[in-house]
Amino acid sequence: MKELQERIRQEGLILSDTVLKVDSFLNHQVDTKLALAIGQEFKRIFQDKTITKVLTIEASGIQFAMAAGIALDVPFIYAKKKKAVTLAESVYSAPVHSFTRQETYQVSISQKYLGPEDKVLIVDDFLATGAALVGLVDIVRESGAELVGVGCVIEKSFQEGRGLLEAKGIEVHSLARIASMSPGQVHFIDELIPTT
Ligand code: 5GP
């Protein structure tokens, strides 16, 4: 997605060879028009698939899962990182190790909102080590729902996440794939995402 690549080049802060900060337009302050365009792009990419739910993880996947849900006209669910007292019913849960926070936490969703009848698109802001998405994949599998694919806004292709997901037979599409980066420089893997 060209517009996204341009914004990353203009506004992304490369804090190290592995950490990119995009909080002026993606995951702290959010450019709402861009977020909605991202949702439309996920719809275009997965247009030949039936999708009944979009699933993400709090907090920074929420705006993109909502945008995809709006585009696809289906609900979205976000996995919670802490079990709230209001989440008293049975849950699906999985452990996730956080790359940015360097800690392991349990993510969960209510069993009420996902089941064998569902066809799920998982969406997130970043694909890095893949730990967060593997946690969501485990939740989808536990629920008996069908996993249609994974859509990421930014993929750091030099990290192991894509390989981990593809090894599980999962279709992965990322809107901006970073081949390498260093302070002041970012290189993208340019590829056309097929429409069928
Ligand atoms: P993963 O589980 O794939 O390692 O990364 C999961 C989460 O870590 C992403 O959803 C994202 O919130 C955060 N993350 C990973 N790498 C980066 C990065 O370079 N920049 C930012 N801002 N967040 C990241």
Automatic annotation (TrEMBL):
One of its GO terms (biological process) is xanthine metabolic process. GO terms for molecular function: xanthine phosphoribosyltransferase activity. It is found in: Cytoplasm. CDD domains: PRTases_typeI. InterPro entries: PRTase-like, PRTase_dom, Pur/Pyrimidine_PRTase, Xanthine_PRibTrfase. Residues 37-157 form the Phosphoribosyltransferase domain. Keywords: Cytoplasm, Glycosyltransferase, Purine salvage, Transferase. Converts the preformed base xanthine, a product of nucleic acid breakdown, to xanthosine 5'-monophosphate (XMP), so it can be reused for RNA or DNA synthesis. This is Xanthine phosphoribosyltransferase.
